[in-house]
Amino acid sequence: MSKKTAIVTGGNSGLGFATAKKLCDNGIKTYIIGRTKEKTEEACNQIGENAIPVLFDLNDIAGIPAMIESITKNGSIDILVNNAGINLKKEFTDVTDEDFLSIIHTNLLSVFAVSREVVKNMKENGGGSIINISSMASQYGIPKVIAYSASKGAIESMTRAMAVELAPSGIRVNCIAPGFIKTKMSSTALDNDPERKNKVLGRTPMGFLGEPSDIADAVYYFALSESKYTTGTVLPVDGGNSIGF
C-alpha cells in the first residue's frame, strides 16, 4: 500500500481523522481536506509524515476542480473517502429553505463535485476506490434531522449509481453507514441525556457504542484489493442498531 495515494475530506477530526490515521499508518499518502488551517495542520502533525493538509472549504463548489487538480498534478489518486458533512437539528416546520439547501450543498453536492473530479484522474490511471460515508439516518426515520436524512439517503442512491456506471473503468464505489460512534461530541450529548443514551444502547444489540477506529477499519477494507469484487454496497457499522428492536 506504500505506493497508494488517498484523499479524505473532513479528515481533521472525528471519523475522518481516524480514517486518515489508519491510511497513513499503513503507508498510504493521504491528503486531508479541511477548511480550518490550525485544526487541519495540527491533525496532520499528529498523524505523521504521510498526512498532507489541503486547506479548502467544500462549500466553494466552483473551486473544487482547481483544488483537486492541485492534488492530482502530483500523481494519481487511488482512494477517495467522502467523509465531510454537517448536521442540523430542528423541528420539521422550523427548517427554512436556506437551512435545507445548506445541508444538501455540503453533504451531497460537494461529494458529487469532488467525486467527479477525482474520477477523471482515476479513469486516466486505471481505476480506484471511492468510499462514501452515509449515516444510520438513511436507514430509518430520525426526527428533527430532515435535511441531513435526505442528504444521506441521496448519498446511498448515488453510491449505487456511481458503482454501476464506473465499474467498467475499474472504479469501485461503496458506502459506510455508521451507527452511534463514541466521539467527543456524541459522548457529551449522550452523557447529558441519560434517557436518550439508554434508548440508543437498548436498541443496539451489541450493547455499546462503536469506536472511530471501527469506521476506519471498514474504510480500509474497501480501499484494499481484498474487496476487489465488492462495489455498490452500503455497510452499516452500527453494532446491529439498524436491525435492532
TrEMBL record:
Phosphoprotein in keyword set: no
Classification via Pfam families: adh_short_C2 (PF13561)
GO molecular function terms attached to this record: oxidoreductase activity
EC number(s) stated in the UniProt entry for this protein: 1.-.-.-
Presence of keyword Oxidoreductase: yes
Enzyme type, top EC level: oxidoreductase
Keywords for the protein's UniProt record, in alphabetical order: Oxidoreductase
InterPro entries according to UniProt: NAD(P)-bd_dom_sf, Sc_DH/Rdtase_CS, SDR_fam
PANTHER family to which the protein is assigned, alphabetical: SHORT-CHAIN DEHYDROGENASES/REDUCTASES FAMILY MEMBER (PTHR42760)
Family assignment from sequence similarity: Belongs to the short-chain dehydrogenases/reductases (SDR) family.
UniProt name for this protein: SDR family oxidoreductase
